Amino acid sequence: MSAWNLRDKSAVCGVGQSVYGRRLERSPIDLAAEAIRAALNDASLERDDLDGLIVSFGTPIGADADTLAHALGLKLKLYNQTWAHGRFTASCIQWAAMAVSAGLASAIACLAAVSFSGYRKPMMGGAGDSEGGREGGGGHGEDPVFGMTSPGAGAALVAQKYFSTFGATSRQLAAVAVAFRKHAALNPAAIMRAPISADDHQKSPFVCEPLRLLDYCLINDGAACVIVTTKERARDLRKPPVYISGMQGLPAGREEFIWTYPGFGVSQQGAFDYEPGLQPVYRMAEVTPADIDALFVYDAFSILVWTALERFGFCGRGEAAAFTQDGRIALGGALPMNTNGGLLSEAHVMGWNHQVEIVRQLRDECGERQIVDAGVIQWANAYGDSLIYHR
Amino acid sequence: MGEYTKPLPAISSLNRPYWEALKRRELVLQRCAACSKVWYPPAPCCPLCWSRDWSWQKLSGRGRVNSWVVFHRAYFSSFAPEVPYNVAEVELDEGPRLLTNLTEVDNAKIRVGMAVEVVFAEATADVTLAKFRPTARRV
């Protein structure tokens, strides 16, 4: 029995975003509406053409899908939302791709909206963080009774282990923040555009040591939306289709600690020499890492860039520290990454701002930060999920 | 000693024996009778072989620092007086790793691989925490 082949069955036909900012004081529903309207306009679709909605980072602190459907008078036959966490970007797009391929809906708006200033004042870490109230470490690393809270703490635990195991340094990690800030400087929508140096990174204060402030993503307000439809429908619309050619699900279990790859030996993982082989996303898309023109990763913390590179085989275990030096991951380098500036410098829209950028890169719409001849772009994360898009 | 204001554990049917043992100054975890694995956090069955034939076993209380972090920010106001405070992941001799605070050590001297032993830190009348300190060198 052969698997249902989803390669190139669906495509992104429109992308849109709200303004991004640090203190917009606008509700997530308001921001989501702006992003949906922009994406519909980009796709040359009308409101009533949308029959599906998938909200990432939804209730209780993002845009609740029920409220959004009511507020905008949508007429949906398929909708869903994920809880208040950023890791479900690829999952949402995968569900949309499967749904349109199966005929369950024809055009699905997938989005996240976040407002740290305008709605419920959500916290990352501490008493206001419901996810951070989990105990025992598990797959994400919290244990509040010992003061172990905030997503950055689990990432810091991985960074410390990485430094210790491979002899890497915080100064090497600076290369990630510096490269993405360079990209943000070329992106008018980015929140943080002033250039930074490795020295600036080293002078920035520790938040959860060994991670520093410039290893941490932004906390901000904004929304971004991607509309997924069938390849046939996408070809009839205004913008060139960006095909969804490969997918890989979000793994979980005792071998997973979301800030790194299996075998890394943190939380309850085993400790072994992880070998990624050719990950399923490449087999579905019929490409290899060598074919990837640009890589986008969920860079909530700079260390996640290293663990994502090693997880997908762009370099060997322990090699990402060296791999990311000397401009290799910057525009013009061998593997440009997060050309929007990432969560570190453009905005933290749960990775949805990255999907918008990927689509624009594949349509040659990125102006000064356009990757020359970008044909195949991958979204791939330390926690193992992935998408491959092509023009 | 003033009122304890730091977060307290959510004690449930799954983890109650763990917390009750700490009150008795014992560190216990579940151990599978079928495959001998010891695991953490508490689970309804052996996460390795799915056997429900397990029991709570007293552990050595010894292990090594697997990784650690130092908080320079007070996410919980109750931790503010201790900033910068450490959180370590200790790998027990029996295998599982516990998050904990290291006591009796300068944060600057913490290292991966450092040998540590459990210290029972009474938080409230109902809750005692398993913290760890560097193990005295033995011949």
State the share of residues found in helices of chain B, binned by percent.
Answer: under 10%
Tell me the major beta sheet of chain A. Answer: 9 strands, mixed
* Rg value of chain A: 19 Å
Oligomer: heterodimer
Give the helix level of chain A as a range of percent.
25-40%
Amino-to-carboxy terminus distance of chain A: 30 Å
**Average pLDDT rating of chain B:** 96
- Count of all domains of chain B: 1
Overview of this protein structure:
The complex is a heterodimer of chains A (391) and B (139). Chain A has helices at 28-43, 65-71, 89-101, 151-166, 170-185, 198-203, 231-235, 280-285, 303-311, 320-323, 342-345, 352-362, and strands at residues 10-17, 52-56, 78-81, 107-115, 208-209, 221-230, 242-248, 294-296, 376-380, 386-390. Chain A contains twelve helices and ten strands. Chain A has two domains: 1-124 and 219-239, Peroxisomal Thiolase, Chain A, domain 1 (3-Layer(aba) Sandwich); 149-215 and 244-391, Thiolase/Chalcone synthase (Peroxisomal Thiolase, Chain A, domain 1), CATH 3.40.47. By secondary structure, chain A is an alpha/beta fold. In chain A, strands 3-2-4-6-1-7-10-9-8 form a nine-stranded mixed β-sheet. Chain B is mainly β and 139 residues long. Chain B has one domain (16-134). In chain B, the strands form two sheets. Chain B has a five-stranded antiparallel β-sheet. Chain B has a three-stranded antiparallel β-sheet with strand order 2-1-3. Chain B is globular, with a radius of gyration of 16 Å. The model of chain B has no long low-confidence stretch (mean pLDDT 96). At the A-B interface, helix 4 and strand 5 of A face strand 4, strand 5 and strand 6 of B.
